[in-house]
Specification:
Layout (H helix, E strand, L loop, with lengths): L9 H15 L4 E4 L4 H9 L4 E4 L3 H11 L3 E3 L5 E3 L3 E4 L1 H15 L3 H6 L5 E8 L4 H15 L4 E3 L4 E5 L2 E7 L5 E8 L2 H14 L2
Parallel strand pairs: 1-2, 1-3
Antiparallel strand pairs: 3-4, 4-5, 6-10, 7-8, 8-9, 9-10
Helix pairs in contact: 1-2, 1-4
């Protein structure tokens, strides 16, 4: 919650913590494939490389060890700070954000407002028949619609375009698939959701 009682969102917690920590110690950052691009943007703004891992705390930690990352985490607000220990820690996240507030003198809404702006949509739906084949159709549709496309198939499929990205992955615990879309505008996010849902019917 910011000073006006408005929730800032879990994705911003990690981005704010990373932005603060990299001001005092620069180095690689690792997050999972479902994490907002905000965190990658704030790291790259100060010249720090970002690597992605499949979803799951253990996967992020493995990526952090491999890349010697100074900080990492998952988009659910979980911050992992090796300086403290290799594990998600809400107290570490709170301490980093509170330290940033104290040192900058800015309000939480001011700091959140300075982050790169994205619209994120998360949906879950029953797993359709032929899901794996239909994921290929999603990839084909997006490659047909956008010239610059990067594809990562380590955890379902994540497809990046210049102003956003899409991830479709099977749940590990339920017979559903999860769809995450992030884009620079609500119009683009809505369009990407429609494209993916149509391909998965």
């Amino acid at each position: 919650m910011d000073e006006a009682g408005r929730p800032i969102g879990e994705e911003m917690t990690l981005a704010l913590a990373v932005a603060y920590y990299l001001r005092r110690e620069k180095g690689p950052v690792a997050v999972n494939l479902s994490t907002s691009r905000m965190t990658a943007d704030v790291a790259r703004m100060v010249g720090c490389p970002v690597s992605l891992s499949p979803v799951g705390e253990a996967n992020v930690i493995a990526e952090m060890r491999k890349r010697k990352a100074v900080i990492g985490g998952e988009g659910n607000g979980g911050v992992i700070l090796p300086e403290s220990h290799y594990g998600r820690d809400a107290l570490v996240a709170a301490a980093l954000v509170l330290s940033s507030l104290a040192e900058t003198g800015k309000s939480l809404s001011e700091m959140a407002g300075a982050l790169p702006a994205y619209v994120m949509t998360k949906k879950k739906s029953p797993l359709p028949a032929g899901f794996e084949r239909k994921i290929g159709k999603v990839e084909k549709e997006l490659k047909g619609a956008y010239r610059e496309v990067a594809v990562d198939r380590r955890d379902g499929v994540r497809i990046d375009i210049p102003d956003g990205w899409v991830q479709v992955r099977k749940s590990n615990t339920e017979p559903i698939y999860r769809l995450i879309v992030e884009a620079r505008s609500k119009n683009l996010a809505d369009r990407l959701v429609r494209m993916v849902q149509k391909a998965l019917r």
